[in-house]
């Protein structure tokens, strides 16, 4: 039973600076996207971007929180969701296959970003109102804006260097 429940120790508590960076990053990121939505009349917000903030500002060293994963993962999965919706409709099997295909494509392109796995769900639940413009706003604009904020906050202090990688977009390793 202990093995099933995970018998290991908890990770160490985050220090105040790290906690504050998470708070500040999430607050500034969503606030900026909300204000840009109001100013432009276009939505810069979608639910998965809140989860993206958690990765970018709380566990920024994770491979899942690197810019290529954030931007590439969101773009690829949103494109899959939009294509599936417009080609095959919003039936449950289509939604399930779109999520599965999104995971496959993110793994293949080395752009795994868990919040992006929700994009086909968001798109299918929104229905046929979602067009290809959704790739620009909120997907691309929102993910790039969060990466820009993360680039500033995650590089505060001498020892911090973020991102850990970006290069090689599209290269795969067999």
From TrEMBL:
<feature type="transmembrane region" description="Helical">
    <location>
        <begin position="93"/>
        <end position="110"/>
    </location>
</feature>
<feature type="transmembrane region" description="Helical">
    <location>
        <begin position="71"/>
        <end position="88"/>
    </location>
</feature>
<feature type="transmembrane region" description="Helical">
    <location>
        <begin position="130"/>
        <end position="153"/>
    </location>
</feature>
<feature type="transmembrane region" description="Helical">
    <location>
        <begin position="43"/>
        <end position="65"/>
    </location>
</feature>
<feature type="transmembrane region" description="Helical">
    <location>
        <begin position="15"/>
        <end position="36"/>
    </location>
</feature>
<dbReference type="InterPro" id="IPR007065">
    <property type="entry name" value="HPP"/>
</dbReference>
<keyword id="KW-1133">Transmembrane helix</keyword>
<keyword id="KW-0472">Membrane</keyword>
<dbReference type="Pfam" id="PF04982">
    <property type="entry name" value="TM_HPP"/>
</dbReference>
<keyword id="KW-0812">Transmembrane</keyword>
<protein>
    <submittedName>
        <fullName>HPP family protein</fullName>
    </submittedName>
</protein>
<dbReference type="InterPro" id="IPR058581">
    <property type="entry name" value="TM_HPP"/>
</dbReference>
<feature type="domain" description="HPP transmembrane region">
    <location>
        <begin position="13"/>
        <end position="163"/>
    </location>
</feature>
């Amino acid at each position: 039973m202990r093995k099933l429940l995970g018998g290991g120790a908890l990770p160490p508590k985050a220090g105040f600076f790290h906690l504050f960076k998470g708070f500040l990053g999430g607050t500034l990121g969503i606030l900026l996207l909300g204000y840009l939505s109001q100013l432009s009349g276009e939505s810069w917000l979608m639910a998965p971007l809140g989860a993206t903030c958690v990765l970018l500002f709380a566990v920024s060293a994770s491979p899942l929180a690197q810019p290529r994963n954030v931007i590439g993962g969101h773009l690829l999965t949103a494109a899959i969701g939009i294509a599936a919706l417009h080609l095959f409709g919003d039936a449950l099997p289509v939604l399930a296959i779109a999520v599965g295909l999104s995971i496959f494509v993110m793994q293949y392109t080395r752009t795994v970003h868990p919040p992006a796995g929700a994009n086909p769900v968001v798109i299918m639940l929104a229905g046929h109102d979602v067009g290809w413009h959704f790739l620009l706003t909120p997907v691309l604009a929102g993910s790039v804006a969060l990466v820009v904020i993360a680039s500033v906050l995650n590089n505060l202090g001498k020892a911090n260097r973020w991102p850990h990688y970006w290069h090689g977009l599209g290269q795969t390793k067999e």
